[in-house]
């Protein structure tokens, strides 16, 4: 396992790409810094791209565009930004979690978003189907949220295609922020390759139909085909690159000033040092833990990497934080998930252990794996 020389990303990250020992996210962030005042220019470029995308549709419809939202921190900001900075009339589309999965914080935050005066379409998949898929995706992919993510990403374009609103906004560009090169587009705003996201392509769609008792309900999880995008001239844009203060921390601050509820003091329970991500449901915290067992890094690494690139933390300071919080997810959350999908906690660990990378972790039956590696130091097993 090799680390990026500048941050703490490892080469075990899916679709990672390194140049001279430095990951693409670090390389991109340096390019942006040298351009400095480029954000104004980028905002103009984004506006032009949107104008081209909307083409003849402009002003013909009630809504100019669709913004995909959740009960999380980025949504509040995106909705406001699209309305106030881009001067558009957004329709918000949310794929909500089933009641047993959604947290009270998430429900409150969605209500808060609506109370700010936006129109919102909420789509909620059938609860039993969701449960069955969560268990199967955990067993088959070691990912408790795969089906949830598929429905989140698929719902927004599906509604866009049905309503004929052809411009869609997402927040961050995963290629640039997370180093996932499979979704890289024509330029930094281009989100039309979102369909290549690992979680959407890995394993195909057949498993969904097999996993549920009413196969027709699997349709909800399918990402619309390219041909449908082309017929309706659908374009997806990332807002992040044209946004001078887009970061997890800025978004959380902005959103909480606008009524968003955070989860302060919960980092020993959730492993989330920002207390601001995954507000709307808790099972993603399990995924973050499993990701750590698979690839040797988790969410804490992603958060500190951003801070390293912004020169808010040194690599040394970041290592200490990662040692303390990466891979943390409490027994309480694990028990709640096990109950949700109908398995015991020991079954949970048995399934999880089949996904742990034994090159970099010691695996013990019925217990949490223990890392063999030291954070920030290349490891050869
Ligand atoms: Zn890096």
Average pLDDT rating: 86
CATH architecture of the largest domain: 3-Layer(aba) Sandwich
Please tell me what the overall shape is.
Answer: globular
**Proportion of β residues?**
5-15%
User: What is the count of helical runs?
Assistant: 17
**Which molecules are bound in this entry?**
zinc ion
Radius of gyration: 20 Å
Structural class: alpha/beta
Order of the strands making up the biggest sheet: 5-4-3-6-7
Name of the top-level CATH class of the largest domain = Alpha Beta
The run of helices and strands is EEHHEHEHEHHEHHHHEHHHHHHHEE
Number of strands: 9
CATH topology of the largest domain: Rossmann fold
Helix content: 40-55%
Which parts are unreliable, with pLDDT below 50 for 5 consecutive residues or more?
A: none
State the end-to-end CA separation: 8 Å
| Total individual domains | 2
Largest beta-sheet details = 5 strands, parallel
Task: Write structural notes for this entry.
The chain is globular, with a radius of gyration of 20 Å. The protein is α/β, with parallel strands linked by helices. It is built from 17 helices and 9 strands. β3 (65-69), α3 and β4 (90-95) form a beta-alpha-beta unit. Helix content is 46%, strand content 8%. The chain has 2 domains: 18-33 and 263-371, no CATH class; 37-242, 3-Layer(aba) Sandwich (Rossmann fold), CATH 3.40.50. The termini are close together. The longest helix is centred in the middle third of the chain and has 18 residues, at 146-163. Bound molecules: zinc ion. Residues 4, 6-7, 9, 22-23, 25-26 line the site of zinc ion (ZN).
């Amino acid at each position: 396992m090799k680390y990026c020389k500048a941050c703490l990303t490892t080469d075990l990250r899916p679709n990672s790409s390194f140049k001279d020992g430095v990951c693409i996210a670090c390389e991109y962030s340096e390019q942006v810094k040298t351009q400095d005042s480029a954000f104004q220019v980028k905002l103009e470029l984004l506006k032009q791209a949107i104008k081209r995308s909307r083409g003849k549709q402009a002003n013909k419809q009630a809504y100019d565009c669709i913004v995909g939202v959740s009960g999380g921190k980025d949504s509040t900001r995106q909705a406001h930004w699209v309305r106030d900075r881009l001067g558009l009339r957004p329709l918000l589309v949310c794929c909500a979690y089933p009641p047993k999965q959604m947290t009270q914080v998430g429900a409150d935050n969605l209500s808060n978003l609506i109370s700010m005066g936006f129109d919102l379409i909420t789509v909620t998949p059938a609860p039993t189907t969701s449960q069955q898929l969560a268990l199967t995706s955990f067993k088959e992919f070691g990912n408790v949220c795969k089906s949830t993510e598929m429905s989140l990403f698929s719902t927004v374009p599906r509604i866009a295609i049905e309503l004929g609103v052809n411009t869609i906004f997402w927040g961050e560009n995963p290629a640039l922020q997370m180093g996932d090169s499979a979704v890289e587009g024509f330029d930094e705003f281009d989100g039309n390759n979102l369909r290549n996201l690992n979680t959407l392509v890995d394993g195909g769609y057949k498993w969904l139909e097999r996993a549920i008792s009413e196969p027709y309900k699997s349709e909800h999880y399918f990402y619309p085909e390219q041909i449908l995008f082309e017929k309706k001239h659908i374009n997806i844009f990332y807002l992040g690159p044209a946004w001078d203060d887009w970061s997890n921390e800025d978004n959380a601050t902005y959103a909480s000033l606008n009524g968003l509820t955070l989860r302060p003091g919960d980092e020993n329970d959730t492993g989330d040092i920002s207390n601001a991500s995954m507000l709307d449901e808790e099972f993603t915290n399990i995924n973050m833990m499993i990701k750590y067992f698979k690839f040797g890094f988790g969410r804490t690494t992603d958060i500190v990497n951003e801070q390293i690139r912004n020169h808010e933390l040194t690599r040394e300071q970041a290592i200490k934080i990662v040692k303390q919080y990466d891979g943390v997810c409490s027994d309480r959350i694990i028990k709640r998930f096990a109950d949700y999908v109908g398995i015991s906690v020991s079954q949970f660990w048995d399934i999880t252990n089949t996904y742990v990378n034994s090159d970099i972790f010691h695996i013990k039956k019925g217990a949490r794996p223990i890392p063999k590696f030291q954070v920030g130091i290349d490891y050869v097993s």
